[in-house]
Design goal:
The complex is a heterodimer. By secondary structure, chain A is α/β, with parallel strands linked by helices. Chain A has helices at 39-45, 90-101, 119-124, 138-141, 162-171; strands at residues 4-6, 9-11, 15-17, 34-38, 56-60, 78-83, 107-112, 129-131. Chain B has 4 domains: 6-109, Sulfite Reductase Hemoprotein, domain 2, CATH 3.90.480; 127-289, Sulfite Reductase Hemoprotein, domain 1; 306-399, Sulfite Reductase Hemoprotein, domain 2; 413-568, Sulfite Reductase Hemoprotein, domain 1, CATH 3.30.413. Chain B has helices spanning 6-27, 33-41, 65-78, 101-109, 142-153, 226-240, 251-258, 260-274, 283-291, 306-314, 316-325, 353-366, 389-399, 429-438, 442-448, 515-529, 537-544, 547-554, 557-568; strands at 45-47, 52-56, 62-64, 82-85, 91-93, 127-128, 168-171, 185-191, 197-203, 215-222, 326-328, 334-339, 350-352, 370-373, 379-385, 413-414, 453-456, 470-477, 480-487, 504-505. In chain B, the strands form 4 sheets. A 5-stranded antiparallel beta sheet of chain B has the order 1-2-5-4-13. In chain B, strands 3-14-15-12-11 form a 5-stranded antiparallel beta sheet. In chain B, a hairpin with a 5-residue loop joins strand 11 (326-328) and strand 12. The chains are: A alpha/beta, B alpha+beta. Chain A binds chain B through residues 86-90, 92-94, 96, 101, 115, 117-118, 120-121, 124-125, 137, 147-155, 159-164, 166-167, and chain B through 7, 10-11, 14-15, 18, 22, 30, 35, 38-39, 121, 151-152, 154-163, 235, 238-239, 243, 273, 277-279, 281-282, 284-285, 288.
Chain lengths: 172, 571
């Protein structure tokens, strides 16, 4: 069973992720429960979902454009972004866009090939929840968030780059 | 030399700890080969043909003698006592043992060095002009801008897993000595009418199997916007660069597939959100970085030296070396000296640990304890008093680094090739040696004049063959090593208005043993056609085209057909 890390703690997961079928077909939606829908399903049946009894959220694949849900973001308590392969870095840009451009404040969850050694950058880019791949040692992975104590660039976690913070500290 | 502050040092130390933990988990079977591969490449560690290869970063090619002595120590303690300076201004060790690599990185960190992002699909070491800070045609000191970019590109959270590797080059002088047109992003410093500094930004240049000259996405980008504009370019690339095919994943392919204008529009649209944001550079930061560079304590010296003049008049060997290997300096009484690592019989760029120590001693005595690695795989002492040149020459000659061939035919750029590299189709170093042996007559070399001969053992083009005036590419034909010849490439501006260009293949490839003859025919063709000594090989190619060179090598059309039939005949 995949482990969920949220706010740097191992927690239980109440959400059910609805994946596409092996040929890319859209999944059936259950009668109730909290579900994470593929983007295409959400876009196709957006209005019908208004009557859904549980909580709804959406997951984006690495190739999908976060702009597609920009107007709907206030309706979601969770948005997930899929990493099809650990070395595929598109999800980092998607996360920053969701946080910085579209102002998304809810849970942003990394799903897919989510591994220990990638958690640090994911968190910097705005993810705050991580569904680890099944084989990962979740306890050990918790340490990965502290890999680096500083960063030079802007990120969601450090919106002001080091050079501006250093200067501000020097001027005080 | 840029000196780390506490945070710079801490990040490098934390990187060592991270890699130590990753190595431990891999050796304990908790990380798969595939996963560890992505992580070790980010620390410059390849698993090569015979053993791992560790690529150590020498940021923008600048090295202190303390660092060089540490490299010598590492080469002795962890390897076979020598290293290879690469065309990316890095140092490669060919036989480190995997369990010891974290210790090597820890030793490097004690002298403010590392192997961060020297491989893998991320930002690579930023390269620049090896005469930065001392050249007379300087616009800005490119080292400062390289360091600004080094910090920005180190562990960038959003851009650490790009579709493919990403190489920056920065040129701060009027002449382009950094080959900015054949990098993913090339930055050429310029000043506008008011004297403000900015950069001409080239995108999508590169060598490899799809060589391309970069396209000028911006003619003048004010320096304040350097980072935010690069972020816009990188965000477009990170999101839309191809990840389905490793051979089509570089940014040049995205630029080509989109078309430069559409690519520019996408970057500008992205930049509209980022412009004037927190990444906008401020003068205090540039000044802070500039202030962390140690500067030589130059003396006020006369521009000429009677002893030097007398030695040049009386000692022909010294004069030859001075003509080729000494470069003018912006300070009166100083010069930059190139130590040639291209002695015949030695693989280009190879240096033993003992030689490193001796070079460090010389750099301490003659050049303020610093040196540079050039992308032509030579070493530079950038700040030598002209009155010391003759004694320095004698000492350098005793070490075997005074071959007076900088800019000449035997100053060959070569990748390690099939002797060392698992990607190579063919060997490159024996080809370089065979050419060097054929052209060992110094008078003849000087008569031929300036020419770049570049050799790559495969189409990944680590030897930059596309931009050699003569380029040699190792190719595989049914398991045999063959070599394709290109003519007319060039890495920078050869004269005002004539920029970088890619060589053209002149015809079917050759067996290794034939290469010295082919080069000789090309040279004879050039000598017969030049209008004076001042007209260089590349100038003649530009004037008369490639056809006469083809004919010189393959003969006329009938003879070419015969050559091709000969190649096709079963061996």
């Amino acid at each position: 069973m995949a482990t969920l890390i949220k706010e740097q703690r191992i927690v239980a997961d109440s959400w059910r992720l609805l994946s596409r079928g092996p040929k890319g077909e859209l999944p059936d939606v259950p009668e109730q429960g909290d579900v994470i829908l593929p983007l295409a399903l959400w876009l196709e049946r957006r209005d019908a979902f208004l009557a859904y009894p549980g909580k709804l959220s959406v997951w984006l694949d690495a190739s999908e454009d976060p702009e597609a849900i920009a107007a709907d973001l206030q309706r979601f308590a969770l948005v997930a972004v899929n990493f099809p392969k650990f070395g595929d870095g598109r999800g980092y840009s998607i996360a920053r866009l969701l946080r910085e451009r579209y102002g998304y404040k809810g849970e942003l969850r990394a799903i897919g090939d989510v591994l220990h050694d990638f958690l640090y950058f994911m968190r910097q880019c705005g993810f705050d929840a991580f569904t680890l791949r099944d084989d990962q040692d979740a306890q050990a992975a918790l340490a990965a968030f502290d890999t680096f104590s500083e960063g030079y660039q802007t990120s969601v976690l450090r919106p002001v780059p080091l050079f501006r913070r250093r200067l501000a500290a020097g001027k005080q | 030399m840029y000196l780390y502050d506490e945070i710079d040092q801490k990040l490098v130390d934390e990187r060592v700890a991270q890699f130590r933990d990753q190595t431990r988990r891999f050796l304990a079977g908790k990380l798969s080969e595939d996963e560890f591969r992505a992580l070790r490449l980010r620390n410059g560690l390849y698993i090569q043909r015979y053993a791992p290869m560790l690529r150590i970063a020498i940021p923008y090619g600048l090295l202190s003698t303390k660092q060089l002595r540490k490299l010598a120590h590492i080469a002795r303690k962890y390897d076979r006592g020598y290293g290879h300076f690469s065309t990316r201004q890095n140092l490669q060790l060919n036989w480190p043992k995997l369990p010891q690599v974290p210790d090597i990185l820890a030793e490097l960190a004690t002298v403010q060095m590392h192997a961060i992002q020297t491989s893998g699909n991320s930002f690579r070491n930023i390269s620049t002009d090896h005469f930065a800070g001392v050249a007379r045609d300087e616009i800005v000191d490119s080292f400062v801008w390289c360091e600004v970019l080094r910090q920005w590109s180190t562990f960038h959270p959003e851009f650490s897993y790009l579709p493919r590797k990403f190489k920056f080059a920065v040129n701060g002088a009027r002449s382009d000595r950094a080959a900015v047109a054949v990098h993913d992003i090339g930055l050429h410093a310029v000043r506008d009418a008011k004297g403000e500094v900015g950069f001409k930004v080239l995108v999508g240049g590169g060598l490899g199997r799809t060589p391309m000259i970069g396209f000028a996405i911006r003619e003048f980008l004010p320096w304040q916007h350097l980072l935010s504009y690069c972020e816009a370019i990188l965000r477009v690339y990170n999101r839309y660069g191809r990840r389905d095919n490793i051979h089509k994943a570089r940014i040049k392919i995205l630029v080509k597939e989109r078309g430069p204008e559409r690519f520019r529009e996408e970057v500008e649209a992205e930049w509209a959100y980022l412009k004037d944001g927190p990444s906008t550079l401020i003068a205090e930061e540039v000044a802070r970085i500039e202030g962390r560079f140690t500067r030589p304590a130059y003396l006020n010296l006369p521009a000429s030296d009677a002893g030097l003049e007398a030695a040049l008049a009386s000692d022909r060997a010294f004069a030859n070396w001075h003509q080729r290997n000494v470069y003018p300096h912006k300070r009166p009484g100083y010069a930059a000296v190139t130590l040639s690592l291209k002695k015949t019989g030695v693989p280009p760029g190879d240096v033993t640990a003992e030689q490193m120590d001796k070079i460090a001693d010389l750099a301490d005595r003659y050049s303020f304890g610093e040196l540079r690695v050039s992308h032509e795989q030579n070493l530079i002492f950038a700040d030598v008093q002209i009155s010391d040149l003759r004694t320095l020459w004698q000492e350098v000659r005793a070490l075997g680094f005074a071959t007076p061939n900088v800019g000449l035919l035997t100053n060959i750029i070569s990748c390690p090739g099939g002797d060392f590299c698992s990607l190579a189709n063919a060997k490159s170093i024996p080809v370089a040696e065979a050419i060097q042996q054929r052209f060992d007559d110094l008078d003849y070399l000087h008569d031929i004049g300036e020419i770049d001969v570049n050799i790559s053992g495969c189409m990944n083009a680590c030897g930059h063959h596309h931009v050699g005036h003569i380029g040699i590419l190792g190719v595989d034909k049914n398991g045999e090593e063959w070599y394709q010849i290109q003519v007319g490439g060039n890495q920078g501006e050869i004269r005002p208005g004539v920029g970088a260009s890619l060589g053209k293949v002149i015809g079917p490839s050759f067996a290794r043993a034939e290469i010295p003859d082919v080069i000789e025919k090309l040279i004879e063709c050039y000598l017969a056609r030049r209008d004076s000594d001042a007209e260089r090989f590349i100038d003649v190619v530009h004037r008369v085209g490639v056809e006469p060179f083809k004919e010189a090598v393959y003969g006329n059309a009938d003879q070419r057909a015969a050559h091709r039939r000969g190649q096709l005949a079963p061996a």
